[in-house]
Structures are given as C-alpha cells and as structure tokens.
C-alpha cells in the first residue's frame, strides 16, 4: 500500500494560503493493480494532476484501506489474479466500503467481453490499455462530475419531497381548521336565528 499526496501550497512563511486563494479539493483516487510498475507510474503521474493517490496491490488490500479511508474514484485493473477485478468491484460495493466512489476499470485492447462484464457489474466507465493519460484524466473527472451532479439532483429532489410533505400536512391542518370554523359558524347562525325567533315571539305576545 502506498500513497502519493502533494502538500498544500503555503504563503512562503510556513502559513497556509488564505481561504480565498486555495485551489479546489484534490480528488481522492485509489489504484488497484497487481503490477507494481503500473501502480507506481499511475500513482506518480496522477498525483501531478491534482489527485491524492493511494495504491493497493490487490483487492484484499484495497478493501482494508477503504474501511477507514474514503475515496472519490477507484481505478481497478481487470487482469488481477489473486482477486479478479470484477470480484474486487463486487465485494467493495456489497460491503458498502465506497458508497460515494466512482469505479473505473482497466482492460486490454480488443477484450470487449471484459468491458461489458465490468459495466454490467457496476463500473461507471471502462478504459483500455495502453491509454493516453490526458484522456484517462478527462474521463475520471467526467465520471466524478457526473456523479456529483446526480447526487446534487437527488438531494434537491429529496428536499422538494420533504417540502411537499410539509405543505401537505399544513394543508390538511388548514382544511381541518376550516371545517371546524364552518361548524362553529353554523352553530352561531343557528343560535342567532333562535334568539331572533324568541324576540319575535316575545314581541308578538306583548
């Protein structure tokens, strides 16, 4: 297990930069690959593109890491043997270890079945080796941005549902109060009419 994380930019005197000048939050990325060279290269190159990168040599190590470390993106090599890429993805999802993370799988060129299997298992995207780093970076950010947009829409819809439920309760309470007022008015009208009739009767007697 290895981490690639650049420090925050300071002001030059040991102090952090003012809040208004801070860059956007770096995305947290986990790379799962049994090939140590591929892991190291990806970790080093992506860390220079504003990712905080953690490396895991297999799915079991990755699950232990995820138990205490949230991730935004998980990059899984499909060619692993100890625990396959599909099994790794499925176990992470089933265990709820990365509920907010996006999964991107890596497969070999020409292996269409691998891509279909990965997407069917719940991967958000699939990339093919050898890949262009600029394209990989763009696709990772696109997947994450799409997920954040969907999450924001879900929160907005939940807020709307809650507001509608509150208004429905308020409307129900208003209807009850209106019915009670109507009953009270009918009673008052009846009492006034009875009083009027009594006055008329007394006047007639006198």
Description:
With 206 residues, the chain is an alpha/beta fold. It has 5 helices and 6 strands, in the order ββαβαβαβαβα. The protein has a 6-stranded mixed β-sheet with strand order 1-3-2-4-5-6, with helices on both faces. The longest helix has 73 residues.
Largest sheet: 6 strands, mixed
Fraction of residues in helix: 40-55%
Topology as H/E string? EEHEHEHEHEH
The CATH class of one domain, by name, is Alpha Beta
**Structure classification:** alpha/beta
**Average pLDDT value?**
83
Radius of gyration: 32 Å
Query: With helices defined by DSSP (H or I, 4 residues minimum), what is the helix count?
Result: 5
Widest beta sheet: strand line-up: 1-3-2-4-5-6
CATH superfamily of one domain: Response regulator
Annotation, overall tally of beta strands: 6
Keywords:
single chain; 206 residues; alpha/beta; Rossmann fold; six-stranded mixed sheet; 6 strands
Summarize the structure.
The chain has five helices and six strands. By secondary structure, the chain is α/β, with parallel strands linked by helices. A six-stranded mixed β-sheet has the order 1-3-2-4-5-6, sandwiched between helices.
What secondary-structure arrangement, pairings included, does this model have?
Elements: E1 2-4, E2 27-32, H1 36-47, E3 51-56, H2 59-66, E4 73-77, H3 85-94, E5 102-108, H4 112-120, E6 125-129, H5 133-205
Parallel strand pairs: 2-3, 2-4, 4-5, 5-6
Antiparallel strand pairs: 1-3
Helix pairs in contact: 2-3
